[in-house]
Amino acid sequence: MILIGGGRTITRSDSHPYFSDGCVAVEGSRIVEVGETKAMRKKYPHAEWVDVDGKLIMPGFINMHQHIYSALARGMSLKNAKVSKNFDEILENLWWRLDRALGLEAIKYSALTTYIDGIKNGVTTVFDHHASAGHIEGSLMEIAKVAEKLGVRTNLAYEVSDRDGEDKMRAGIKENIDFYEYAKTRDDMVGALFGLHASFTLSEETLKQCVDAGGAEIGFHVHVAEGRGDVADSFLKYEMPVVKRFEKAGILGPKTLAIHCIHIDDAEKDILKATGTAVIHNPQSNMGNAVGCADVLGMFGRGVLMGLGTDGYTADMIESMKAAGLIHKHVSGDPSAAWAEPPAMLFKNNAAIAGRYMSGKVGALEKDAYADLIVVDYDPPTPLDETNIDGHIHFGMMGKQVVSTMINGKFVYKDRVILNADEKEVLAKSRETAKTLWERA
Ligand SMILES: [Zn+2]
Which residues surround ligand 1, an ion (CB under 5 A)? Predict the structure, then answer.
């Protein structure tokens, strides 16, 4: 048993949300008990003692939508690059050029650097949406191998699309099924969803093949009405909006992640609620791509289960939470708006959504939950108690303050050192790999 204690402890558990001097007892992969440090040390005198020395203890973050494959694009300037004036052009001029150029080595280093960046920002679970049209078969296994080596919890999907022809579309379906079969043999550290790119790159026949292949039982991970072009395409070809089309095709349901949902109408929001589909909001990516602002507050009002991701934009979930707070205040013109929803998405809802794919619990420090926790170097300049935790996070914290990360009962990052890989060596090799990738793309 390990006791991690001696600091302010935010549990995100309803029964006892905050301890001014808290301690978490961990046995194997699970939390045994959370309590006051003094009492816990007395109760478990033989446990290994990890003193956080006044730092803050809280649950690790869950990123509900990430794109590992985009990692090596940082700082990239492509040959003959065109200026992209809308989201469709960003995909064609940047992301699809990149994903066609990815080989296994680039996928491996994208995974290593993305997961390490996440771990250093306190992310303990990553739901990833992968694309590598240049190398589809085995791509998810390559990423999973990296996740297992680093000790990070992950859920992977390959985005099926018609954009590179029928053979690649079929290979995408096969990759999802192959990986799902592998994930079934693992514990809650590795999970699978059936990835779909987006409505405008998927024909009716392809959607049917994905459902028939077992996608509906697995659950889909799909971009929904991200750009206006996706909606226009759906009306033009199918005479209905995207959410309606996906409902008819059997894509929605409580196991499906609908990413973005920006250009949808009220009837579509009702469909998302009625089908129990979770919607994942990615505010920084949406602002960066200038695709618009999802009606997050309206969907909350309707009872849609809303989660938070980063869409490849950052690894820092606190950044994403802050951006969510800002965009919805800005767009609604109401400074009193969006105080409660961003932390609800990041903590309560992401935990609930991730929990749909696991047998155990993540996202809370409480008895029997997985021991996924972080230690944050945050010494508050103003009083902190259970009534103002979110205010402290919004105005005072960032991912880079995380000094230690424990996942599934094991430290994977301790006192700012990545334990299961040589970080410097990974970064050096990643830079080399990125250089050759940029030349190929
Ligand atoms: Zn995305």
Answer: 311
